[in-house]
Specification:
Blueprint lengths: L22 E3 L21 E3 L1 H9 L7 H14 L1
Parallel strand pairs: 1-2
Amino acid sequence: MKIANNKLVDPPSCLSSMADLEMLDLSNNRLTSLSSLRLSSMHALQLLNLQTYLNHLREEGQKHVPADIALCIADFLRTSA
């Protein structure tokens, strides 16, 4: 599902209920948090694009991935293994 370029601040929480979703493109939004996204329930997810969000963090001088992103990545890796 591509929901890029929508000026989203948070991903819609309903995405977490889409267990069969294989691709989620959230690039080029204004994401400030991923707390509403539960990747552990998205069993079929194989591709997650957060490009602009990660670039924004780097530009702000963030040297470490924020905790909510780290948890999302860990959930994604755990469920895709």
